[in-house]
Design brief:
alpha+beta; Heat Shock Protein 90; 5-stranded mixed sheet; about 40% helix
């Protein structure tokens, strides 16, 4: 419920607010599982406004990616990169774990839900092997200038 209230709060419409929320979630979940992690986010000068729907869906995709790492990867380290590249917001979540075959239809709905959410706001989601070991989830979100 806290996530829903946060997502619709118009005072939390900045990329900086989203990155703080993401960092807090990652810290809580990874620290409790003894997984080392790095979190990289844009500086204040790259801050921008995000609509509530995009903010909510980016956060939910992020939460699913992090939860999947904890549940399935058996990793020692995860890296989260949130950046602004041209006219896109780019979120990359990677781990050094066991990896998986994204074409293997598991029993869960997490990956399908992530894809649906990304497509819903015109984003692009790629899930695949990390260089050498583990998995990388990359979300690209078109930036719509908001006043």
């Amino acid at each position: 419920m806290r996530d829903i209230v946060w997502a619709i709060n118009p005072r939390r419409d900045r990329l900086l607010d989203l990155s703080r929320r993401m960092r807090g979630f990652a810290s809580d979940i990874f620290t409790s599982r003894n997984i080392q992690f790095q979190f990289h986010a844009p500086d204040r000068d790259r801050d921008l406004r995000l609509g509530p729907e995009v903010r909510r869906d980016v956060f939910l995709i992020f939460k699913e990616a992090v939860s999947n790492i904890v549940r399935h990867s058996s990793c020692a380290e995860a890296v989260i990169q949130l950046s602004v590249e041209g006219r896109e917001l780019v979120l990359t979540v990677s781990d050094d774990g066991e990896g998986f075959d994204p074409s293997d239809d598991g029993e869960g709905q997490g990956l399908a839900s992530m894809l649906r959410r990304a497509e819903g706001f015109g984003g692009k989601l790629e899930i695949g092997p990390n260089d050498g070991r583990g998995t990388t989830v990359q979300l690209r979100v078109p930036i719509v200038k908001r006043r």
